[in-house]
Amino acid sequence: xxxxxxxxxxxxxxxxxxxxxxxxxxxxxxxxxxxxxxxxxxxxxxxxxxxxxxxxxxxxxxxxxxxxxxxxxxxxxxxxxxxxxxxxxxxxxxxxxxxxxxxxxxxxxxxxxxxxxxxxxxxxxxxxxxxxxxxxxxxxxxxxxxxxxxxxxxx
Length: 155
Fold this sequence. Notes:
Blueprint: H1 3-17, H2 23-32, H3 39-48, E1 52-56, E2 60-64, H4 76-80, E3 83-89, E4 92-97, H5 102-111, E5 117-122, E6 126-131, H6 137-144, H7 149-152
């Protein structure tokens, strides 16, 4: 197994078994375990693993790895109820969230692999959705309805 694959496996293991809130925390653990990498490499690895963040009442914001469907049991309701509104202007959509929820909401949407969705960009409390110009908003909303019924009902 290559060094990168070993490192990705180690990152998964750490995130699955510990409450990690910051990249430097994770970087220090990896360094202690013999993985001498930079913060930029760690950021790319987290992206490769589709690592998302969620808010917890005990530990603040922590990293987690969504399952194959972009969800992790017990976590999605917290994330999804952080989404507060969804509005469209042509092929651009904006989801407003509670502070700190946008990255996790964006990761869940990305994990659904919706064909007409070109991409998402997430900040702290806003997710920008970019749809193919020929993709109908109603089709997109029906794809999201199982995830975001709380938000779609507000449209």
